[in-house]
Amino acid sequence: EAVMRRILVTGGAGFIGSNFVRMVLCEHPDCLIVNLDKLTYAGNLGNLAEFLEHENHKFVKGDICDGALVGRIIDEYEIEAVVNFAAESHVDRSITGPKVFVETNITGTLTLLEAARDKKLERFVQISTDEVYGALGPEGKFTEQTALSPNSPYSASKAAADHLVRAFGHTWGVKYNITRCSNNYGPYQFPEKLIPLMINNALNDRELPVYGDGLYVRDWLYVYDHCTAIWRVLQNAPPGEIYNIGGCNEKANLEVINLILSRLGKPKSLIRHVTDRPGHDRRYAIDAGKIMGELGWKPSLSFEQGINKTIDWYLNNQDWLRNVVSGDYQSYYESMYANR
Ligand code: NAD
Ligand code: TYD
Fold first, then answer.
1. Is 215 helix (H, G, I), strand (E, B) or coil?
2. Which residue, of 249, 250, 262, 308, is most buried by count of CB atoms within 10 Å of its CB?
3. Which of 124, 120, 21, 28 is nearest to 81 (CA)?
4. How deeply is 273 buried, as exposed, middle or buried, from its count of CB atoms within 10 A (0-12, 13-18, 19+)?
5. Backbone dihedral angles phi then psi of residue 282, each to the nearest 5 degrees
6. Residues with catalytic roles
C-alpha cells in the first residue's frame, strides 16, 4: 500500500519523530524504518520502549552531520526516502546557545541532502515549522506563499535548512517536500515546551512561569495528526511541494494554562508572570487549506479532545516524566528561570 517503504527517519527518538515511528510500525507493516538519532537531551529510547526489538525498526545512534554514516545506512538498508525530524527544537535554548542550532539544523540538513542527491533517493521530506514565517498580528494566517521572515535563532536555522532543501531540488533535482506545522502537543513531549512544562510543574505544585502577559497565541495540533499529515506528504505528494499543517486551534497561552490547572484541580495562584522571551513572536496561525484540499488530510481530534488525552497520558506516565527530568533537567530549569 505504501509507495515509499524503506524509510530513514532522523530524530526518531524525539517527541514528534517517536510518535511518527510508532504510527508507521503500528499502521503500515509493509514499511521498514531506520531511525538515526544522536540521543541529545531531547532524545530518549524510552519513547519507543516497546518497539526497540521490532523487526521493522532498526535504531542507529549517530549524528546527521556524519555523512559517511548516513551513506552507509542508505546503502545497507536500501533506503528510498528520508524524513528529517532531527533538530535542535527549542526557541529558548536557541537564544542562550545558538551554535548547535546552526550545526544540527543547517549543517545536518545539508549532509542529508548531499546523501539524498548522491544516492538518488526517491524522496526527501524536511520537517520544518510555521516559525520560519515569523510572527502575525491579530489577523491573518500563514500560507505557503508567505515570505520567510524568521525571528529567533531556532527559526532562522530552520528557514536556512528550507532554503537549502529547495536549492538542492532546483540545482540537482533532489525530489523533496517541506512541511511547516504549527505547535505540536501530545505524549512524549519534553517538559521544556509549554504544555508538558506546565503539566509537570502543576503536578509538583511548582509555579507556572508565564512569559510576559501570557496573551501570545499558538495554533495547536495533536502530534498524531501531524504524523498522519507527514505520511500523506511522503506517500502522495508530488515532489517540490511545500505544505502548511495546522488544526485551526488558536489559543492564548493563558487559556491553555488555565485549562491544564482546572483539569489537574490545581489553583490559579500557581501562575507567575515572568520576564518575557526576547523577540517573542506574538501570534502564529496556519492556513492548512492546501494539504486538506490536495491530499485530503484533516485532523482527527479537536483541541479539547487532544489536551484531555495529553493530560491523561502524563498522569498515567509519571515514570516517564520522572525519568526525563532526572538528568540535567533541574539545572537547566533553574538556569532558565532563576533570573526571570
Ligand atoms: P525534539 O527536540 O523532541 O527531538 C529532536 C530529536 O532529534 C531528538 O531525539 C534528538 O536526539 C535528535 N537530534 C538532535 N540533534 C541531532 C543530530 N545532530 N543528529 C541526529 N539526531 C539529532 O523535537 P520535536 O519537537 O520532536 O521536533 C521534531 C522536528 O519537528 C524538528 O525538526 C522541529 O523543528 C519540527 N517541528 C516541531 C514542532 C513542535 O511543536 N515541537 C512544530 C513544528 C515543527
Ligand atoms: P514553546 O512551547 O517554547 O514553543 P514555541 O516558542 O516554539 O512556540 O512556547 C509556546 C508559548 O508558550 C510561547 O508563546 C512561549 C510560551 N511559554 C511560556 O509562557 N512559559 C514557558 O515556560 C514556556 C516554555 C513557554
1. coil
2. 249
3. 124
4. middle
5. -70, -45
6. 130-131, 154
Query: Rounded to an integer, what distance in angstroms lies between the CA atom of residue 174 and that of residue 169?
Result: 4
pLDDT in tens, 26-42: 999 999 999 999 999 99
Taking CA atoms, 321 is separated from 15, 127, 238, 265, in Å, by 13, 25, 40, 19
pLDDT digits (tens, 9 = 90+) for 74-100: 999 999 999 999 999 999 999 999 999
Going from the Cα of 293 to the center of ligand 1, the distance in angstroms, rounded, reads: 28
Distance 177 CA to ligand 2 centre (A): 27
Using DSSP, state whether 212 is helix, strand or coil. Answer: coil
290 CA distance to ligand 2 middle (Å): 27
State if residue 64 touches ligand 1 by the CB under 6 angstroms criterion. Answer: yes
Cell numbers that stand for 160 in this block = 536556512
Question: Which numbered atom of ligand 2 lies nearest the CA of 154?
Answer: 7
